[in-house]
Specification:
The chain is built from 36 helices and 32 strands. It is α/β, with parallel strands linked by helices and about 950 residues long. It has a 6-stranded mixed beta sheet, with helices on both faces. Strands 8-7-9-6-10-11 form a 6-stranded antiparallel beta sheet.
């Protein structure tokens, strides 16, 4: 390969990389693969991407650098030929509630421009199309106000712009105006306050002040005409009705009415528009956002379903959870209140809440109306008004925190969840408002914009915005996201969906000469959509970019131009370049686990027999209707491994996570999260525990590690406390904890490192000079067991510690569980922040394996193969089968065919995503469903099973 066409990496030593040299071809699709924890991300993200970003940031001024995330120089000797780098990771999307699919992809920005330029405004009161207003119409509208109304005619000069605006204020004074309105307050032109240049301001010249009465018409018309000229066709009228003035002792509130020469309804002047500009259509701008919800589309309200979470409980025993003392027994005051309520409204205090008549339940929650008081002869504040009053008046943070648990997001009653003002919603293009477009799925939006009919002038104006909108929508269709709605908030997207949206955004940008680093773009993607994803990646290469993909999917690996296999194992046993080259080159290297699995020399073999599925022994979800689910009934057999499959957006996570998991959590543990809409869940008595095992971190601080998470560290600390020297000194198990005072090093507070903040540079973490990274003080480290102190044990590899603690069965049982899930290479005290998602998930599995089981536990896993190599999946399946062998039930949401083929039972949802999904397409054993013509999963599973059977017959 020519030197100019490669990225040459020399001496990469980041994390567990062993000073490796790697050559990456430019303008090609390169896959970096290897088992979980081998060092793939350390090479791709922490070395290649980090160095590219660092070089870019260092090229900026010191002033600019202080606003950017500072990146440390990776541990690498040299990288030559590195183009600008862009990372598209599998991290979740923005948690900002204002971020949506449309805003992230810039589709909404171009929609705002489109509506501002060719939109047709309508009166939001009567619906008629509105046109421009001339002076006479404005005067007529004003004169309909009551006589005696005070009026100030203002000409807007600055609207929501930052700066001191001295030139404008000088011009106002030069033109003879004596008053000016700044940010809602009227000032004498000679006494104007200093304006903060970093804040947005509204400035208007006060043209005239008058009171409506006979003979004022000519003066009013002249003033409005002057204001329209000065204000570029817009006039702001500050009004104070006579009644307002009297009721407030002469200091009545002024309110604005805006008129424009451009848009206004003659019958409803309050429905006028000052101008059609892009910011009018932004829910992040005060000019477009709904006044009630500030553009969020939702407001926090007390939720009846959270206030009464268990409707089988009586009022006497605490059905109103918010009125319990400490969340347990009823508060004495509210207990008396409930007794009085039951007596006044004729209900039993000991009967279940669900048996209370609907009308009395309404009164209980929302309080009595005048009619209710006449009917029952009693009044009642209502639980929700009571909670609302306490929420608004309390100064106690504890009370606030407790009451917050009963609040949930509800659609804003003013805008109906549309986020925008009524005058904005009334602007249409092709008979659709911008809110109507936002509610469409990407697939529907493609059809709408492709079929949009505009006149000749509008077509010319809208050409560029429409081109950008259509291109971005097409890219999202190409990465399998057609089922998502444009107004879907980013925080509700899965990591895979968020990553593919970012990928579509980057493709749409049209950048060339870059190096894109992607982290498993196939996450959450059905095998059906892989070809479209590969087309997108190929397009990035064809226009002159390098694409580096950290991936385990066999389709992506087969299609790669160049493969880098990192290994041979994980952690300290990894970090080497095992094999490089084409797929054929990789398959010829015996050390390469990837090559062995791709060539089928190793494989995850089909089970000899599948567990018998007894449908009478099941949990059944009835009437599931959340999101796109079509009122379906689904049975989950117990004691077996069930795999829920289907294309992206078909409703898998909604069914399993939002309805089944949350529904069981609420019924078994009275948890707060509200389950998705469904009628009932049957068969609850057949399980006694529900556990979700995901890939989220086992802890958010360096203090958490495998030993603390599994509980083995408690046993180890107890063992050290039992040693002779510890007993002499009176040391208890707490002495050997690095989380509490006593035995830890107080200089670093048990962290082992000290953080040093560097101005304009990344924070530096240095080893604590007092304890030299051990976390403990010298006195604690003097206590040893078999010649090892507590710090030595934490630095010990898990595999080694199994032998070290061989005489203690309880400790060995937990350590063996960690070894069984393939984590023997890690140290007991390895910080949770250094674990990959796959490693964190296996620590959680090991924690479950180490516990004495009841045989009636339900485990839920959502795409557990994320970040896992073929060998890791092999290990994972062995663990899952062990759990089911104990009589437990496992429900897995998965696209990976190696997992699906191992399932005892499959539930396939579809047939498509979004509105075209939400139905049960197939259910049964793998062998039963593969002949279903409606199921995409069945088609690919049949190919997989046929391939497995051919390999089996050869061996």
């Amino acid at each position: 390969m020519a030197e100019s066409k490669v990225i040459q990496i020399t001496g990469a030593s980041e994390h567990n990389l062993k000073h490796i040299d790697v050559v990456v071809p430019r303008d090609k699709m390169v896959v970096i693969t290897g088992i979980s924890g081998s060092g793939k991300s350390s090479l791709a993200f922490d070395t290649i991407y980090a160095e590219g970003q660092r070089k870019y940031v260092e090229s900026l001024s010191a002033y600019a650098r202080q606003f950017l995330e500072q990146m440390q120089k990776p541990q690498v000797e040299h990288i030559e030929g590195l183009p600008p780098t862009i990372a598209i990771e599998q991290r979740s999307a923005s948690s900002n509630p204002r971020s949506t699919v449309a805003t992230t992809t810039e589709v909404y920005d171009y929609c705002r421009l489109l509506y501002a330029r060719v939109g047709t405004p309508h009166c939001w009161v009567c619906g008629r199309e509105i046109t421009s207003q001339h002076t006479t119409q404005i005067v007529n509208a004003v004169l309909t106000r009551p006589e005696g109304t005070k009026l100030q005619v203002c000409a807007p000069l600055v609207r929501g712009q930052k700066g001191e605006h001295r030139d404008i204020l000088v011009r106002v004074q030069r033109e003879g105006f004596v008053r000016v309105r700044i940010d809602g307050l009227v000032y004498d032109i000679k006494n104007i306050p200093h304006l903060d240049k970093n804040k947005k301001h509204d400035i208007a010249a006060v043209v005239d002040r008058l009171i409506l009465k006979d003979g004022v018409r000519i003066r009013l018309a002249d003033s409005i005409e002057t204001a329209l000229k000065v204000g570029d066709g817009v006039v702001i009228l500050m009004l104070q009705d006579p009644g307002d003035e009297k009721s407030s002792g002469g200091n009545g509130q002024w309110h604005d009415v805006v008129f424009s020469e451009k848009y206004a309804c003659p019958d409803h002047p309050e429905a006028s528009l000052a101008e059609l500009s892009p910011r009018l259509f932004s829910f992040n701008s005060p000019y477009g956002a709904c006044r009630s919800c500030d553009g969020l589309g939702t407001i926090l309200e007390f939720d009846p379903d959270l206030i009464v979470s268990d409707k089988t409980v009586s009022l006497e025993t605490g059905a109103i959870d918010a009125w319990r003392k400490g969340g347990k027994r009823m508060n004495i005051f509210y207990n008396r209140l409930i007794k009085r309520f039951c007596r006044n409204f004729g209900i039993s205090k000991s009967g279940p809440y669900k048996d209370i008549p609907a009308e009395v339940r309404r009164i209980l929650l929302y309080g009595t109306t005048d009619t209710d008081e006449q009917t029952y002869g009693a009044s009642f504040e209502g639980v929700i008004p009571n909670l609302q009053r306490r929420w608004e008046t309390t100064t106690s943070e504890y009370v606030k925190a407790r009451l917050h648990g009963y609040l949930s997001e509800q659609p804003c009653k003013t805008c109906g969840g549309a986020r925008l003002r009524p005058e904005t919603i009334a602007v249409t293009v092709g008979d659709k408002s911008i809110c109507d477009v936002a509610k469409m799925s990407i697939e529907e939006a493609v059809r709408f914009f492709d079929g949009l009919s505009l006149n000749e002038e509008q077509t010319l104006i809208a050409a560029q915005p429409l081109k950008e909108i259509r291109a971005r929508l097409k890219f999202m269709m190409d990465v399998g996201l057609g089922y998502l709605t444009l107004d879907r908030t980013s925080r509700t997207l899965s990591g895979g969906e968020a990553q593919r949206i970012r990928l579509a955004t980057q493709v749409g940008s049209g950048l060339v000469g870059c190096c894109y680093v992607l982290d498993e773009p196939t996450i959450g993607l059905h095998r059906r959509d892989n070809d479209r994803l590969l087309t997108i990646l190929r397009k990035l290469c064809e226009i002159g970019n390098t694409v580096i993909v950290v991936e385990h999917d066999d389709d992506i690996i087969r299609d790669a131009d160049y493969i880098i296999d990192i290994g041979p194992a994980a952690g300290k046993h990894g970090g080497e370049v095992v094999a490089v080259g084409t797929l054929d080159d990789i398959c010829r290297v015996e050390r390469s686990l990837t090559g062995q699995y791709m060539s089928s020399a190793k494989r995850i073999e089909l089970p000899e027999t599948r567990r018998k599925v007894v449908m009478s022994n099941c949990i059944e979800v009835r009437g599931a209707q959340e999101n796109n689910l079509k009122n379906i009934n689904v049975k989950f057999p117990l004691g077996v491994l069930t795999c829920v499959t289907g294309v992206s957006g078909s409703g898998k996570s909604t069914l399993v996570t939002e309805i089944l998991l949350k529904g069981l959590m609420r019924r078994l543990y009275s948890s707060r999260p509200k389950p998705g809409k469904h009628k009932n869940i049957l068969g609850l008595s057949r399980i006694d525990k529900v556990i979700e095992i995901d890939q989220s971190p086992i802890g958010r601080t360096p203090r958490s590690n495998p030993a603390t998470y599994t509980g083995v560290f408690d046993l180890i600390r107890a063992l050290f406390a039992m040693t002779r020297e510890a007993k002499i000194r009176g040391y208890k198990p707490g002495r050997f904890s690095f989380n509490v005072k006593g035995g830890r090093c107080e200089h670093c507070q048990g962290q082992g490192t000290k953080k040093i903040e560097m101005h304009f540079l990344p924070d530096v973490f240095v080893v604590c000079q007092e304890c030299r990274g051990s976390r403990y003080n010298p006195e604690t480290l003097q206590i040893t067991y078999k010649g090892k102190n507590i710090a030595d044990v934490l630095d010990m590899q898990i595999e080694e510690s199994k032998t070290f603690f061989a005489n203690f069965p309880k400790i060995v049982r937990l350590i063996k569980a960690l070894c069984d899930v393939g984590l023997g290479y890690m140290t007991l005290g390895q910080s949770s922040t250094t674990l990959s998602g796959g490693e964190a998930q296996r620590v959680k599995l090991a924690s479950e394996l180490g516990k004495p089981g009841t045989g009636h536990t339900l485990y839920v896993l959502d795409e557990p193969t994320t970040g896992l190599h073929f060998a890791d999946i092999h290990n994972l399946m062995n663990v899952l089968r062990r759990l089911t062998d104990l009589g437990n039930t496992i429900i897995v949401i998965e696209h990976n065919l190696d997992v699906i083929k191992m399932a005892d039972y499959i539930i396939d949802l579809g047939p498509e995503g979004g509105l075209h999904g939400g139905e049960v397409i197939a259910a049964g054993t793998p062998e039963k469903i593969i002949n279903n013509p409606k199921s995409y999963t069945a088609r690919y599973l049949k190919e997989k099973l046929d391939h497995e059977n051919r390999l089996k017959s050869r061996s």
